[in-house]
UniProtKB/TrEMBL annotation:
Biological classification of the source: Eukaryota, Viridiplantae, Streptophyta, Embryophyta, Tracheophyta
Protein name per Swiss-Prot or TrEMBL: Sulfotransferase
Pfam families listed in its UniProt record: Sulfotransfer_1
E.C. number: 2.8.2.-
GO terms of biological process kind: sulfation
Span of domain Sulfotransferase: 74-337
Source organism of this protein record: Triticum aestivum (Wheat)
Main EC class the enzyme belongs to: transferase
Gene Ontology CC annotations of this record: cytoplasm
Length: 341
């Protein structure tokens, strides 16, 4: 059966999705039996997966269906992030780097002129395994570029078995928190709900009760996988990408087996990708200003994935005490693993 979430015509088309209410029903029943509590989310209620992370019910169920049914290929590249850590930016960089030969980054016909990065690199549990659908991704050309917010332990089992590549982006927890809090409150306002105060948001975040949280477990899972297997798991920091985006585009291109040639370097291809995907350029595109992306809970304006795009905006929102508390947790959790953010 064809889906209501169709791929934009400018992108390769997937096969028709199968509808499997029974599978979704079984996982919904199972996940509904897990503990749930108030947290930092649009609807306030987050379920705790048996592997210890939090999410809303439809997303958790989508992740479980993806685990059961997604067939990864060694050539796949999966962007993994905590929400609000630089996902949109990384999707843009990855898509434009991988497809730079068919779609020149500076060219007028680039897909970003008509669709956002979330349409070009789609999320398993937010976009593909949703609303009883089991998508047919087999016909998509290699390399398939996909994304997820689930922690390492809950990645679809075929991802680990296939040996495909994972690109992880981590962001300073204080900026991740502020970005999440702003995003959540934007939707709460639309839903007629009271905003969550920044103090309450910080409390939930520190307790791990935020989408895909706890933040620290999420980051550590992928950091340790990167240390154990650097050729399979690439680890980026948002702050370092901001400081030197070109170096990160080169690293990314090498990691996915498409390094920039000397000729491309001379022609400024790296800078063209950086410029195309920059916050300033992306926010000016019509696809950002007026486009929408279908997510599990409905259509979301592409502009909502862009707010300020700064490093250190937390200073404008968090009290020194809250900042110290988050820093102390981060230090206690990360220090032993040689990770600083
Ligand atoms: S989501 O919903 O999980 O996909 O959000 P995510 O993309 O991970 O995070 C959104 C934050 O990333 C900023 N952003 C960017 N920064 C730099 N460059 C580019 N191109 C870019 N695109 C999005 C976005 O503004 C959000 O951060 P804040 O701090 O809220 O501005």
């Amino acid at each position: 059966m064809s889906s209501s979430f169709s791929t934009p015509a400018i992108l390769p088309q997937e096969g028709d999705a199968e509808t499997n209410e029974e599978l979704y029903g079984q996982f919904t029943e199972l996940a509904s039996s897990w503990p749930c509590s108030r947290g930092l989310s649009r609807a306030n209620l987050l379920y705790r997966h048996e592997k210890g992370w939090y999410s809303t019910l439809p997303l958790m169920v989508g992740a479980m269906v993806a685990d059961a049914r997604f067939a990864a290929r060694p050539s796949d590249v999966v962007v993994a992030t905590m929400p609000k850590s630089g996902t949109t930016w990384m999707k843009a960089l990855l898509y434009s780097t991988v497809h730079r030969r068919e779609h020149a980054p500076g060219g007028p016909g680039h897909p970003f002129n008509s669709v956002g990065p979330h349409e070009c690199v789609r999320h398993l549990e937010y976009q593909l395994y949703t609303r009883n659908r089991v998508p047919d991704l087999a016909g998509l050309p290699d390399p398939r570029l996909l994304a997820t917010h689930v922690p390492l332990a809950s990645l679809p089992r075929s991802v680990a078995a296939s040996g495909c590549r994972i690109v992880y982006v981590c962001r300073n927890p204080k900026d991740t928190l502020v970005s999440t809090w702003s995003f959540v409150n934007k939707f709460r306002a639309e839903d007629g709900l009271e905003p969550i105060s920044v103090e309450a948001a910080a409390g939930y975040f520190c307790d791990g009760v935020s989408a895909s949280g706890p933040y620290w477990d999420h980051v550590l899972g992928y950091w340790r996988a990167h240390l154990a297997n650097p050729e399979r798991v690439l680890f980026f920091r948002y702050e370092e990408m901001s400081r030197d985006p070109a170096a990160h585009v080169r690293r990314l291109a090498e990691f996915v087996g498409r390094p920039f040639s000397a000729e491309e370097e001379e022609d400024g291809a790296v800078d063209a990708v950086v410029k195309l995907c920059s916050f300033e350029h992306m926010t000016g595109l019509e696809a950002t200003k007026s486009g929408k992306t279908e997510l599990v809970l409905g259509a979301v304006e592409n502009s909502s994935f862009f707010r300020r795009g700064l490093v250190g905006d937390w200073e404008n929102h968090l009290s020194p005490e809250t900042a110290r508390k988050i820093d102390a947790i981060t230090d206690a959790k990360f220090r032993a693993f040689g990770l600083s953010v």
